[in-house]
Amino acid sequence: MIAYVVRRLLLSVPIVLVASFVLFLAVRETFDPLAKLRQSRDPGVLERETVRLGLDRSVPEQYVLWLKGFLTGNWGVSSRTGEDVRTVIFAALGPTLQLITWGVLFAVVIAGAISVYSATKQYSAGDHVLTTLSYIGIALPAFWFGLVLIQLLAVLPRQWFGLDEPPLYFVGLHSPGRTGFDLDYLRHLVLPVLTLTITLVASWSRFGRASMLDALSSDYVRTARAKGVPRRQVILRHAARNSLAPFVTVVALDGALLFGGLIVTEQIYSIPGMGRLFLDSLLTGDVFVLLPWMLVVAVAVVLCNLLADVGYALLDPRVRLR
Amino acid sequence: MSADMGTVAQMAEVAPAQVSGTREVLRRFVRHRLAAIGTVVLLLLVVACFGASWIAPYEKGAQDLLIGPTGPSAQHPLGTDELGRDYLTELLFAGRISLAIGFFVAVFATVLGTAVGAIAGYRGGALGELIMRVTDLFLIVPGVAILALALEGLGSSPTTIVLVLAGISWTYIARVVRSQVLSLREKEFVEAARVVGASTTRILVRHLLPNLAGLIVVNISLATATAIIVESTLSFLGFGVQPPRTSWGNMLSQAAGLVGTEQVYLLYFPGLFILVTVLAVNFVGDGLRDALDPQGKQL
């Protein structure tokens, strides 16, 4: 297993490298790293910066130079804020990881519960309702859902009940001056987490229902029932456990999608995470942040994919990773 | 989304399909109730949007500054915006761009993906491997990020949007087609064709392509749905269709600031149009899949 993980990690290095080179080219072609200095009155500053950043060399050389800096922890300085890029990105990772953790936790629990319910009560009224909802969830533009949520769950209740504060907040993760895990934090979390996960809950529950149905109609479940194992135990121990493996794979492979969703979610709820950082950097042409951002996300996604395979092997002993 | 920006769960649902008799397929499709409803809704939407010049209650962009923004009423079923423009009219005209972008992205992505996947699968070897590694690249950076970057760099005319979106959505269908072709190429009928001297091109086009027809049709419908959502998301973030052109996505992004104001109805309707369209397209896709692949699992 360890050998497998190491080999997979080594194998993904070239993919990430090629991706980083392509992204480097794309970003270099799109943006002028010196755009901000072009209006400068000091004629020497352009040349000095060109030399300092190595922009007078060939593009492959520039890439190698940049990559070297990245690997040695020298990520450069943001042209938008003048801060150290590494500090900026690690600061942005905080809120983002919180959203991802709560989001995945929420989505897995809800989607899992729906899957088990829908599959064991196939074609019941509840199943029909949930299936319909999952169709709608998949067809929803998530950002619109987020905006409508603000209106329906924060703005309207506040007007109706004449409250001073909305019941659920929609700006940031904490009220100013507060930190830590408290009611205030939870009231900030509900809307972003719902927005981030609506599509995932819908599609994971559909997938989970299908794989649960598969398991329920299998021979080992029939055997267990014939032996007189209690129904509850058959469903949870035998069927659910076995349909967990493909489910985990799907969850882990949707990692890249989650980062995409973060861009929208953090924009709507003004959360200073990776998604916001990406948009702000893109709109100001801050190449010094964009490149490390892409690379950090790419590595995260590669790790997610690896996690998917390892998780599959852990849950399904028939799978041997070599 | 794209199919490749779609969640993995959605992808897993695209089952390989086999065409068996057009009549039979048609019968099964019509009997699929949701698919039939989806088809009707979609047809209505397409007719209403592309025939908007005749159907829409008002002229496109006709302003009535005196009434300003008003809620839904008998004269203006979906209300009016801040310039007094009839919102239903605006939505129908905007739908043209949204629907067209969705459709063309799906078609281009599917054509490209099928071609690449078929070649990679049939030829195999180093070329096939190389192509598959290229599709890997697309999996590790979020699609929305690549799209935003590309549109920021290339500008966002509808044509560019279609090309860029198709440019990153083809990888999913390429993977599916490749895996299908990998198994199809070992079949007797392909071997027979090779023995009688058919060229690679002929085998691909005359023998393999018809066997992929179901897969291709289903993918076009699902990719259309995805592309419509992605376009609206990009417009919301400011990288999609730019004013004065209108799409459902950029109408939504203009209405985004109206949360909590009196004019919040302007936010509801474009989203509902997108939702209904995507639902209808998905139902049609499901119906097609079931009709083309009777053995397939019903999800």
From TrEMBL, chain A:
Species assigned in the record: Nocardioides zhouii
Family per similarity comment: Belongs to the binding-protein-dependent transport system permease family.
Name of the protein described by the UniProt record: ABC transporter permease
Database matches in CDD domains: TM_PBP2
Residue stretches making up the ABC transmembrane type-1 domain: 93-308
Classification via PANTHER family: DIPEPTIDE TRANSPORT SYSTEM PERMEASE PROTEIN DPPB-RELATED
Record-annotated membrane-spanning stretches: 9-27, 99-120, 132-156, 185-204, 244-269, 289-315
Pfam families: BPD_transp_1, BPD_transp_1_N
Subcellular location, principal: membrane
Gene Ontology MF term list: dipeptide transmembrane transporter activity
Superkingdom to which the source organism belongs: Bacteria
Gene3D superfamilies reported in the protein's UniProt record: MetI-like
InterPro entries: BPD_transp_1_N, MetI-like, MetI-like_sf
Entry GO CC: plasma membrane
Membrane protein topology class: Multi-pass membrane protein
TrEMBL record, chain B:
UniProt organism field: Nocardioides zhouii
SUPFAM superfamilies reported for this sequence: MetI-like
Keyword Cell membrane: yes
All residue ranges annotated as the ABC transmembrane type-1 domain in the record: 95-285
Membrane association type: Multi-pass membrane protein
Annotated TM spans: 34-56, 97-122, 134-151, 157-177, 208-230, 265-285
Family: Belongs to the binding-protein-dependent transport system permease family.
Keyword Oxidoreductase: no
Protein name: ABC transporter permease
